[in-house]
Amino acid sequence: MNLLPIAAFTARRIVSRRKTLVLALLAAAPPLFVIVVRRFAPPRALDPFFETIPLFYLVFLCQILPLFFAGSVVRDAVEDRTASFVLTTPSSRTAFVFGAWLGVVPPIVVMIATSAACTFAAWRAGTGPIGGPEDLVLFGRLSATAAVGALVYSALFTLLGLVVKWPTVVGILYYGIFELFLGFIPGAPRRLALSSYLEALLEPPFRTRAQLIAEGPAGIDVPITPGDARFVLAGVLLAASVALYFRSRTRDFTDETATAR
């Protein structure tokens, strides 16, 4: 087996798991939220869609889905002996790890894109034609940004699953401290949250946390430009890939107790 067959095999395993159904229901939250808002919320001068939807996708789903998929992908493969089987074929440890990482990305992207499509349809329902050029541009921009986030976070959480014994617990702590707490603090602390760089890739009419902060008192935040965001995200992805490469060469895939060795 080489990298692509391993990735395809991993994706098929993920789709068949019960956990995927639970997380798919979680991904259904944004369109359901939009339906409720359309039905019960009072009219507003500014459409709340552009304020809340970026938070759902870039500060929630982009982290939670990779955390529960990628964080356990190697451990699950070790426990069900898939790793042992794959490594008996002409496949290197590096190909196995990178295939496992890349295998979790397509299901996550499909779930996010499907959720975003349903969200846009629910938002437009009753207000005009669905699927016009403007909708396609906005949908494409949000989905592409979320896909970048899924790729980066999947690499980080796959690495986390290779170096700690309880990656889900550590990942939840990371999410709460960095993405939620620090990500909402203006200034330098916000730069420690990767989701802040994803938000910088979105342009109006989406209203991200940075744009909402900028409407407050002047001088309390340091803006992140799209160029800075691309540089940081590419750097994190490269660093995670290099770390995955070296960790895969020393990791024992025959014994789950060796996770932290």
Give the C-alpha Rg: 20 Å
Count of all domains = 1
- pLDDT < 50 runs, ≥5 residues: 256-261
Number of helices: 12
Distance between the termini: 26 Å
What class, by secondary structure content? mainly alpha
- Taken from the alpha-carbon principal axes, the silhouette is globular
Number of strand elements? 0
Helix residue percentage? over 70%
Largest sheet: none
Order of helices and strands: HHHHHHHHHHHH
Q: Provide mean pLDDT, rounded.
A: 84
Strand content of the residues, in percent? under 5%
Describe the structure.
The chain is mostly helical. The protein has one domain. 72% of the residues lie in helices and 0% in strands. The chain is globular and about 60 Å long. It starts with a helix and ends in an 11-residue tail after the last helix.
Chart the SSEs and their pairings.
Layout: H1 3-15, H2 18-27, H3 29-40, H4 49-70, H5 73-79, H6 82-88, H7 93-124, H8 133-163, H9 167-181, H10 194-200, H11 209-214, H12 226-250
